[in-house]
Each structure stands twice: as C-alpha cells, then as structure tokens.
Amino acid sequence: MAAAAGDESHLRAALREAFGDSSDSESDVPTGVVTSCGSGVVAGGKQWRWDAASGVRGLWLCDEFLSADEQERLLAAIEREKWFSDAHNQVELTNEDEDSCPLASDLLWREPLFDQLIANRYKPGEGICAHVDLMCFDDGIAIVSLESACVMHFSQAKQGGTACDILNQGDIESTKVPVHLNPGSLVLMSGDARYLWKHEINRKPGAQLWDGRELEQDYRTSVTLRKLMGSPN
Question: Could you give a single Gene Ontology term from the biological process aspect (predicted)?
C-alpha cells in the first residue's frame, strides 16, 4: 500500500486537471461520442490529455496517464508484494482511520483522496460483468489499466428507487458506450458515470473489437482506487 499512497499527489493532480476546482466544471461538456478536453501542465511539469465520453456525464479518460517506465515499476511493486498467486487474483487494501479522514464537500480536496485499493489480475478471456460499484464507496472512482489493452463498455442503468436499487434493475434500452483502455490509461468515474451507468469488460473471443480489429488478449492487471463512505454519526 505504501507505493500507492506515495502516488496520491499524482492522482490528486490528475483529478484536479480532469474536473477543475468545482464539481460543476463538467457541466458544459459538448455532445459527441468522445470530446477532447485538451491537456494541462500539472505537478512535476507532466502533461495529461483528457477525453470526456459525452453521453456518459462524469466519465473521463486519460490514455497515457502512466509512462511505460511507471507501468513497469508499478507492476514490479505488485510482484514484490506477492499479491497474486494461482489461487488468488485479487487483493484489497483499506485504510479505515476515519478520524484522520474528514470528507470535504469537494471531491478534489477530501482527505484522504482514496482509502481503498483493489488490484485484479485477469487471465486471457477473463473480464468483468456489467455492474455499478457498491454504494459503500463514495463518489469518485479511479481505474488504472496495465498490460493488455481492452474495451470497457458503459450501459445506462434504470433510474428510480434508491441508489442501491440501480444494481438490480437491468439496463435501459440504449446503445453501449465503448471506451478503449490502453496499458497505462486512467478512467475516472463520478456523478452519473459512477452511480447511473454500469461498466463491463467482455474479453471472450470475438468480443474485444476496436477500429474494426480484434484486440490481442493477454494478462491484464487493473488497480482501482476508491473512498469508503464514512460511518453515520
């Protein structure tokens, strides 16, 4: 967990670059399949280019968040920790020190930005079924992809009832929104994208198509960062 904690300022700067200093900064995103959001200079002089998937409010993608060297170092750190084995392909780490984690009204300034990390290792052909992340997690979810490229599809969930009901109500008849995830890419989900849209990755043969070609499927590692909801007083 120490390696991930050390990168929090890196992720905080990325979130600020994507969302701005206000939770309403994305309200003027134009329509279209994918909208370029330009690039900006952030901590350490690094630049990130962000794309907003219009039609999925609150969904942002940075194609080249981690350099090849940063990807190698992150994978090496995971390997050193021996998180994965033949029997286990998932690990979850949590910081539950709530007294030192006041949740600010603005996502970008809450402390800590994230307090739960989950890493998954997928074999060729393994993916994730359509789901909305559990409501025990706060708004704002970051997913880093490593190794194999893949396509993540977003489908709108039915609205109505409580937020938890969204998990079990099926999909509205609508077109799925595909997002291509390069190794080293970062997906950010907040607002509608986090609560009202399901996301899935189908890596079965013939399912991973992008630009008219089938993506080569190998091992894929994902690192997801989330914030646990605080306990009620």
Answer: fatty acid metabolic process
